[in-house]
Design goal:
60% of the residues lie in helices and 2% in strands. By secondary structure, the chain is mainly α. It has a two-stranded antiparallel ribbon. Its cofactor is heme.
Length: 302
């Protein structure tokens, strides 16, 4: 496409702006904002790019309780971040399979920063009082974060595989197809072990022949391999950097789960969850989970 040509995305026309045009515009305005930014009677370039009108039309609280909007929007933000994380984790996985460590590490650093943002999404929710939540909780019906198919795909991409969890989504065909595909795809941890093996750190053949849709059993030989990396970080420099990047993800994800538990504990106490769980009891149990189990164990044993 030439610089002067336009394009059409989602039924809306736009025209790319070159670096030269941006520089000329800044000179023309003396560095001040351009007030004639191509707005039409129906839209602006900013609205068109982010589809802001669509995004801001997606909030439909069911009660008059003001706190419900915080609950609603924070939940939607989390879903968007799950989508971003799922995309980035799969990109890092593919780069590792291609033996492109440096760009994979860059993606993992960005993923870790995104996880930090995800953790903070519990902060507004932690301010909702018991009485405020009570004013709209019944309207949730059976809706539960446990049913999030984007979250489930992210868990699978990181290696926490569970065919049983995938089956929970079978009732919605288009959702189940996405979740099942994520279940059957190699995980980030599968790619990490593949890279580790390619760098001369010997691993059992079973690591590369098992069904990626099944949970991987804890393998002492894999733990020993990671321990060798930690004992000789200079010799195994690439695998060591990867191990630390994965550990950073583990840490931030554990913070997400723990903060989730604390928030729910504060807002609903010992009441049952909407999705059939016992609430904080279920969250307390899953908060103990860690991805990349042999790596986590190797950090403790050295």
């Amino acid at each position: 496409m030439r610089e002067s040509e336009g394009a059409n995305v989602g039924g809306r026309a736009y025209r790319p702006l070159s670096e030269r045009e941006r520089r000329e515009r800044a000179e023309r305005t003396g560095g001040e904002p351009e007030f004639d930014f191509g707005a039409s009677a129906e839209s602006t370039p900013y609205i068109d790019y982010h589809h802001v009108d669509v995004l801001l039309s997606l909030q439909h609280p069911r009660t008059q309780e003001p706190a419900e909007l915080s609950f609603y929007i924070c939940g939607q933000v989390q879903e968007l971040l799950f989508k971003l994380l799922f995309t980035e984790v799969n990109l890092a996985r593919d780069l590792l399979f291609a033996r492109r460590l440096d760009p994979a590490l860059a993606v993992l650093r960005r993923t870790e920063r995104t996880l930090r943002v995800l953790v903070t999404t519990w902060e507004p929710l932690s301010t909702i009082t018991v009485s405020e939540f009570h004013n709209f909780r019944d309207e949730l019906g059976e809706a539960s974060g446990f049913q999030s198919y984007m979250y489930r795909q992210l868990e699978f991409a990181l290696g926490n595989k569970s065919p049983r969890m995938a089956e929970a989504h079978r009732g919605v065909d288009w959702v189940y197809k996405q979740v099942d595909a994520a279940l059957r795809a190699p995980s980030l941890y599968d790619a990490a072990l593949s890279y580790l093996h390619s760098q001369g750190v010997e691993l059992p053949a079973g690591c590369f022949t098992r069904d990626p849709a099944e949970p991987a059993p804890h393998d002492p030989a894999v733990q020993a391999a990671w321990a060798r990396v930690y004992r000789e970080p200079e010799r195994h420099h690439g695998p060591y950097l990867l191990a630390e990047a994965l550990s950073d993800l583990n840490y931030q994800y554990a913070r997400w789960r723990s903060t989730h538990l604390l928030t729910v504990e504060r807002v609903i106490g010992g009441r049952p969850g909407s999705g059939g769980t016992d609430g904080v009891g279920w969250l307390r149990r899953i908060a103990e989970h860690r991805f990349f189990p042999e790596l986590s164990a190797a950090r403790c044993t050295g």
